[in-house]
Specification:
The chain has 213 residues and is an alpha/beta fold. Helix content is 55%, strand content 12%. It has a five-stranded parallel beta sheet with strand order 2-1-3-4-5, sandwiched between helices.
């Protein structure tokens, strides 16, 4: 079955055609996993375009909303198919304690999910204890992503990393950090492993850690 029309519709942000194609494929008895793969192919292309600054954050957020709507339709069918066949790994992510901004975090979450990664989204203003508990509860996750927009929470970022160390979990996860005021120097000084300049850079790091081409 040829799914390229769906991929092309995703790249074109053609919301109506996307929903039409999904419904048509399901009516024809196509596997939801195959439909999901075609959608992710489109999202991957959008991620590349975003990296080249051909499209903007608002475009990616719009695509993410379409993806959420498609997943609502596919999710119950995927359960019967044994879940998505291409899940490359799991990432825990949240905005650090004291910071309530979520736009950057949500963009990273959307891009990761659109490229085959499961994401545990802890939300914003995340207490250190909640981060530690998430790592304990998700031993199959090898990456923690921290989102920072305020310079005033750099210390909270350090404290989050220290809490992870104190729980004896530091060697269990790679920690990437990103956000407007963050630099490679800040990442190093707060004890993180990687500075994500943007959402696509973060995706590429996650791919590297999980060995995904």
């Amino acid at each position: 079955m040829e799914f390229s029309k769906l991929t092309e519709a995703v790249v074109a942000f053609d919301e109506n055609r996307i929903y039409t194609f999904v419904d048509e494929y399901l009516d024809q008895g196509m596997l939801a996993n195959h439909i999901l793969k075609a959608f992710r192919n489109g999202m991957s292309t959008l991620g590349d375009r975003y990296k080249r600054e051909e499209i903007f954050v608002s475009d990616m957020m719009f695509a993410g909303e379409i993806m959420r709507n498609v997943m609502k339709k596919l999710k119950p069918i995927l359960v019967n198919e044994g879940g998505p066949k291409e899940v490359f790994g799991k990432v825990i992510i949240g905005t650090v304690k004291g910071d309530i901004h979520d736009l950057g975090k949500d963009l990273v979450v959307m891009i990761l999910r659109g490229n085959g990664f499961e994401v545990v989204d802890l939300g914003v203003d995340v207490p250190y204890e909640k981060v530690v508990e998430a790592i304990k509860s998700n031993p199959d996750s090898r990456i923690l992503g921290l989102s920072v927009l305020l310079t005033s929470v750099f210390q909270a970022t350090t404290m989050t990393v220290e809490a992870i160390k104190g729980a004896g979990l530091r060697d269990k996860v790679k920690i990437m950090v990103g956000g407007g005021p963050v630099t490679p120097k800040v990442a190093k000084e707060t004890g993180c492993d990687f500075f994500g300049e943007d959402a696509v850079t973060g995706l590429n790091y996650v791919r590297e850690v999980y060995g995904v081409p």
